[in-house]
Amino acid sequence: MQEITVTIEEAFLPPITWEDCWEATYKGQRFFILGGQPEAGYIDILINGKRARVRWHLAVERYLERVVLPKRRSSSALELRAPMPGLIREVRLRVGDLATPTTPAFVMEAMKMENLLFPPSEGIVEAIFVSPGTPVEKGALLLRLAPPSHAD
């Protein structure tokens, strides 16, 4: 079975005309849905007499798949420091928010690229030391976390 991967840059799907829940037309091509798992990011289709698996990724999902969280020493597990010199473009957390290693905390411009910065561990945002427009040097303290309270 042929596999097709579609990257969706915008947060919406391209226009598909649905005849019914199993048959549709896209850019003049009629296709039939054979099955799949849309929640897992793929469907199986029949188009021009051939089976194909169509996978899709949003641009943000593709970026997050490549992100490898850095290993941190326990002494700095509750601090986020600038990995390189740059300019803080966006602050995505506020004091009091619960942060995890998969929660984007900052957008930092460095070497003409925008980079997402993530907290090193789970915790409650205790202090934010920068704001949008702040230039930072490598190692500058950006964020401090307090240990999460797991009182149920």
Please state the structural category.
mainly beta
Report how far the terminal alpha carbons are from each other. Answer: 49 Å
Runs with pLDDT <50, length 5+?
none
* Radius of gyration of CA atoms, rounded to a whole number: 21 Å
Major sheet characteristics: 6 strands, mixed
CATH hierarchy class name of the largest domain: Mainly Beta
Number of domains: 2
Looking at CATH, the homologous superfamily of the largest domain is RNA polymerase II/Efflux pump adaptor protein, barrel-sandwich hybrid domain
- What is the mean predicted local confidence, pLDDT? 80
Molecular structure report:
The chain has 152 residues and is mostly beta strands. Helices cover 5% and strands 49% of the residues. It is elongated and about 60 Å long. The strands form 3 sheets. The protein has a 6-stranded mixed sheet. The mean pLDDT is 80. It folds into 2 domains: 2-61, no CATH class; 74-146, RNA polymerase II/Efflux pump adaptor protein, barrel-sandwich hybrid domain (OB fold (Dihydrolipoamide Acetyltransferase, E2P), Beta Barrel), CATH 2.40.50.100. The protein has 1 helix and 14 strands; from the N terminus they run E-E-E-E-E-E-H-E-E-E-E-E-E-E-E.
List keywords for this structure.
OB fold (Dihydrolipoamide Acetyltransferase, E2P); mainly beta; 152 residues; 2 domains; four-stranded antiparallel sheet; 1 helix; six-stranded mixed sheet; single chain
List the helices and strands and how they pair.
Elements: E1 2-8, E2 17-20, E3 23-26, E4 29-37, E5 42-47, E6 50-58, H1 59-66, E7 79-81, E8 86-91, E9 98-99, E10 106-110, E11 113-117, E12 123-128, E13 135-136, E14 141-146
Parallel strand pairs: 1-6
Antiparallel strand pairs: 2-3, 3-4, 4-5, 5-6, 7-14, 8-10, 8-13, 9-12, 10-11, 12-14
